[in-house]
Amino acid sequence: MTSERISIKHLTLDELKAKLDTMGLKGYRAGQIISWIYQQYAVSFEEMTNIAKVERDRLAAVFSLTVPSLLQTERSSDGTRKFLFGLEDGHTIESVLIPDDDRQTLCISSQVGCQQACRFCLTGQGGFTRNLAFFEIAGQVLEVSRILKNEGSRGITNIVLMGMGEPLANFEEVLKAIRIITSDRALGISGRRLTLSTDGLVPEMDALGRAGAKVNLAVSLNATTDETRDRIMPVNRRYPLKELLAACRRFPLEPRRRITFEYVLLRGVNDSGDDALRLARLLKGIKCKVNLIPFNPFPGSEFKRPDDAAVKRFQKILQDHHYTALVRESRGRDISAACGQLRERAAAAGSD
Ligand code: SAH
Questions:
Q1: Three-state SS for 107?
Q2: What pLDDT score was predicted for residue 343?
Q3: Can you tell me the mean pLDDT for 268-281?
Q4: How far apart, in whole angstroms, are the C-alpha atoms of residue 163 and residue 160?
């Protein structure tokens, strides 16, 4: 029955307007409906009381209002929470909520699996299933907001597209999701509080800049020579360091904004003092900060985490060169919610 109706969340605001037009309904209803869904958490047209009853009935006959359904939540000892969602085709995706002193950051997924095959990332080892549609991406924010509201807890303050998948490999849907997340009519979270993390797809980085999406950009650099980066991140063979850093240099930044470079520290691979010096040289002239992430190991992984002294040494060299360099520990490790780990527990356990 529902399969004959159109899932309203597949439609952007403009598409919905066009569809309402063909039904002889007023275009401004589209904005009202979007607000009901994303701001009032409506799950039926019946609730949309500023729309006349006859119109609500017609809408309900044409559209369905399905949402990603929450299957499971887990809470880590450090306060991190993981949410597992079921999609209409039976696939599952995960989002992770990371509370901090003054923020509550939701890390969302953009794909089921990932094609990028980074060697240090568990998601990358599991292969690719499909892109998420924009409403499945924005739906993670909507559903977690709804849960927090029902609990009476603090809402989401920041969003990072750093979960499963490579957001720029799903460019169009991610861009639509960004619009829904940042639109005042919908989720209303400022682009300044939204960060997209890419492994370095240069043409799409340029396209993101051209699209004028006012989001923060994070780039997973993770190496300072093409030789090492080729080995741990296959994307580097297409867009080597020189091209990637040129794309960073020309990326249009809002005033007072900086690019974040993420650098996963892998023992004996990219964590030497020479690497830190090379990194300082590579980033010269780019408005940026560096997040150092000690490798988060998983069963069967070929890499090791450096010891704390090596992490500190790396950080100090960057700081001595006047960079902001923070060490970011992976959160939620005890519930497989940490960096690179958003994959079914069973898959990890299987390779133990
Ligand atoms: N595809 C995007 C976003 C997903 S990965 C990207 O590459 O940026 C999010 C971050 O987690 C990246 O910076 C990645 O380098 C890091 N990461 C992946 N696996 C990790 C691991 N096992 N330990 C620590 N960080 C990891």
A1: strand
A2: 66
A3: 98
A4: 8
Q: What is the predicted pLDDT for the residue at 348?
A: 39
Q: Which residues contact 325 (CB under 8 A, 6 or more apart)?
A: 289, 290, 291, 292, 314, 315, 318, 319
Catalytic residue among 107, 118, 288, 339: 339
3-class secondary structure, 129? strand
Which residue matches tokens 């359904």? 69
Give residue ranges with CB within 6 A of ligand 1: 116, 120-121, 162, 166, 197-199, 220, 222, 262, 264, 293, 295-296, 330, 339-340
The mean pLDDT of 180-201, rounded to a whole number, is 95
Smallest CA separation from ligand 1 atom 25, residue: 339
DSSP bridge partners of 263: 292
Name the band, by pLDDT with cuts 50, 70 and 90, for residue 6.
confident
Average pLDDT over residues 264-292: 98
Exposure string of 281-294, with b = 16+ CB inside 10 Å and e = fewer, is: ebbeebebebbbbb
Task: Please tell me whether residue 152 adopts helix, strand or coil conformation.
Answer: coil
The tens digit of pLDDT for each residue in 37-77 reads: 999 999 899 999 999 999 999 999 999 887 778 888 999 99
Atom of ligand 1 nearest to the CA of 161: 3
